[in-house]
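Long-time lurker. I teach an intro course on protein structure, and each term I like to show students one example going from raw sequence to a predicted 3D structure in token notation. This year I'd like something fresh instead of my usual example. Would anyone be willing to generate the tokens for the chain below so I can use it in lecture? Attribution to the forum is fine with me.
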Amino acid sequence: MILIIVVLFIVGIVVYSKYSKKIDEKNQKDTILTFFSYINEKKYEDMYEMLSKTAKESFSKEDFITRNKNIYEGIDATDLNIDIDEVIDTEKGKEVSYHEKFFTAAGEVSFSNVATLIREDRTYKIDWNSKLIFPELKEEYKVKIFTLKAKRGSIKDRNGNVLAYDGEISSVGIVPGKLGENRDDNIQKIAEILNISVEQINHALSASYVKEDTFVPIKKIAKTSETKNQLLDIPGIMISNADGRVYPLGEEAAHLIGYIQTINAEELEKNTGKGYTSTSLIGKSGLELVYEDRLKGIDGTEIHIEDANGDEVTEILKQEKQDGEDITLTIDAELQKQFYQQIKEDKGFFVIMQPETGEILALVSTPSYNSNDFILGMSTEQWDNLNNDTNQPLYNRFKQSYCPGSTFKPITAAIGLTENVIDETTTLDYTGTSWQQDESWGDYYITTLTAYNGKKNVENALIHSDNIFFSQLALKIGKDKMKENLNQIGFNETLDFTIGLKKSQYLNEGKDFSHVALANTGYGQGDVLVNPIHMASIYSAFVNHGNMIKPYLEYQEGKVDIWKEQVFSTEAIDIIQNALLQVVESPEGTAHDAKIQGLTMIGKTGTAELKKSKDDTESGTLGWFNCITMNRPQGNLLILGMVENSQNNSSGGSHYVISKIKSVLSNMQ
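-- Reply from a regular --
Happy to contribute to a lecture. Here you go:
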């Protein structure tokens, strides 16, 4: 019996010993796991309570919390995970080998490490030192994180000329202690030169960080600004280089290129997960906005350990930066500049396209603004002036749609010829300069400017821009065929183009053609509104066998896309092309003043009346000229130009636009 008791007692001791050992091992592992779990929860005080007495003697609670918080949160450590490998006994205590991994601003960090546990008051405590953060980290070392700034991609023209790029601008600042005895006078001079208020300068100088020898930035200016020498003559002024987006063409291409600015809260939320921060710059308008995802770079991050002298000891992790993509456009910067200069004082636009390929060579909208102003810093007054200017310099005119006037007549003619409603010999019967279908029109008449001699056929009607002919032709085509053909050439349809464009229309929503409305549509009045880039595509059919070429903005070698196939018959194209040639070549043609010796050109003038009623004398007119060069050695150009309120120009209507186009083409001969 005694023997049995002894045996059971021994077995019990063995079992208890094994059980106690398992419990002890579990406690050891739980101590390590709990300690590191507190990092995820940012419970640094709880971590400190798990330290051994020796560790607490070496590190105060405040120092421990500060070091851990600064390092882990400084590198954006998240999702820290521990896998314990083994626990071994040492003279000091338990040595726990483990593998640690977590995510940082630069990516995932993974390493093996060893922690020592000391048994105190029946629990295990961690004999902590800085090497538990990173194995290479000594107490006097620091963990540093650096942002590797990515470069935003450039926007270039077809010839490699830069239209937008990350370059250098100048930062104008004041050193308060050097303003001299005439401090107030000098501040007044600075304010006048920089076009900012004295209050704005004094507010900057009164910031809490400012001392007598502090450089206080006041405003950014262009690197080439002519005001630099004026500013440097004033005591206290310093000018330093700063990084900034540069737009070499400024106002000449502002509506096309756009600008970037600091991201706002709404944009930041919309672009969650794309690497933006509250200080990021983002495209706000134009191609800077359209190509934002491709232009923007992705900043890199480097985390390393430095010694007490600031020298790098070891690299923990490095995420390389990714510079933004460069975008090459079909735009010709020289053409862009020349056409802008022609109408910079007007309200209008130019669209220049290569007619056989669809490459957009220039897009001009006037009046304009300077993209650089948004980078250099715009005062509230400047912003208000831009927004309240009645000429609407922020309004992008080539995106909109307009009444085309007589530039629409070749389209009506092409539809009539394609539908075999008329042929080149067909004549219409009317005399004089006014006409109505019948008495049901009451006192409404279609009027035309000149009563010309000769047959009332399609060629003469285009040469003399005869409203009556095209009104009658539209009625002959009929509303159903007219709508069918206009829909076929892209009306009421969104043109797939890099920049969003307003749809072209031939009727206001909810309306149908009456006889009067259909007649007015024939010569480009009524409810007809055409986007100029869409109009360029329609006109391209006149030199591409009836195919409408799709306009495009991003350069691609050899690219030619047909948007709409065979919208007009080959026979119709031949007739229209010959007639539009005579519009320029014939002394009686409305565009004869566009003729340039040695250059063959087809074209059509247009003066669109914006009258709200027959008695309206305030709304003004739109002066159009659409033309295509036919034998230009450097490559043909399809040019659409329009100026608002053209009745105010001395040369009148479309002839004002002709003079502008002719000036550019003559200089290029």
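Some talking points for your students: The two ends are 126 Å apart (CA to CA). Residues 2-41 form the longest helix (40 residues).
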